[in-house]
């Protein structure tokens, strides 16, 4: 948490109680969260504050927006190593994948890729049974 607060200070962003609560909500989960899920995890923080602060965190690259096959926008901290996600189409579970083909695609196409999004949708082992 301290690293996140330092990141805010470095960007000149005031550290408030709602911002701490939002960051704690994002830190406490392994999977990206929707605005409603963040709101539910932040006691005594109104939805408008959650929305404004998530937008601010995205603007300063502290949080990134994740759009998956279920068309539900989610958010996660952006301070971790690069990875992608796989989502279960039955239960909605989300897992991180530490796999990326970016360098391979750049080599094959000779493009300098500046942005990419790659998410997988499938059926998790529990739902397959």
Brief characterization of the structure:
With 129 residues, this protein is an alpha+beta fold. Helices cover 40% and strands 18% of the residues.
SSE topology sketch:
Blueprint: H1 2-10, H2 17-27, H3 35-41, H4 47-59, E1 63-67, E2 73-77, E3 84-88, E4 94-97, H5 102-109, E5 119-122, H6 125-128
Parallel strand pairs: 3-5
Antiparallel strand pairs: 1-2, 3-4
Helix pairs in contact: 3-4
Written account of the structure:
The chain is of the alpha+beta class and 129 residues long. It folds into two domains: 2-77, Arc Repressor Mutant, subunit A (Orthogonal Bundle); 84-124, Ferric-uptake regulator, C-terminal dimerisarion domain (Dna Ligase, domain 1). It has helices spanning 2-10, 17-27, 35-41, 47-59, 102-109, 125-128, and strands spanning 63-67, 73-77, 84-88, 94-97, 119-122. Helix 3 crosses helix 4 (47-59).
Helix/strand order: HHHHEEEEHEH
Distance between the first and last residues' Cα: 38 Å
Percent strand: 15-25%
**CATH architecture descriptor text of the largest domain:** Orthogonal Bundle
Number of structural domains:
2
**CATH fold-level label of the largest domain:** Arc Repressor Mutant, subunit A
Largest sheet: 3 strands, mixed
Name of the CATH first level of the largest domain: Mainly Alpha
E-strand count: 5
Strand order of the largest sheet: 4-3-5
Backbone shape: globular
Total helices: the number is 6
Return Rg in Å.
Answer: 16 Å
> What's the CATH H-level homologous superfamily of the largest domain?
Winged helix-like DNA-binding domain superfamily/Winged helix DNA-binding domain
């Amino acid at each position: 948490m301290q690293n996140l607060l330092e990141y805010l200070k470095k960007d000149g962003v005031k550290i408030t109680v709602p911002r701490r609560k939002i960051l704690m909500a994002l830190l406490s989960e392994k999977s990206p969260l929707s605005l409603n899920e963040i709101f539910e995890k932040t006691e005594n923080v109104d939805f408008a504050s959650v929305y404004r602060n998530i937008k601010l965190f995205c603007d300063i690259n502290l949080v990134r927006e994740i759009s998956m096959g279920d068309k539900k926008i989610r958010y996660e901290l952006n301070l971790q190593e690069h990875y992608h996600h796989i989502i279960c189409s039955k239960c909605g579970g989300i897992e991180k994948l530490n796999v990326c083909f970016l360098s391979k695609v750049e080599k094959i196409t000779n493009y300098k890729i500046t942005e990419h999004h790659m998410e997988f949708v499938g059926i998790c082992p529990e739902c397959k049974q």
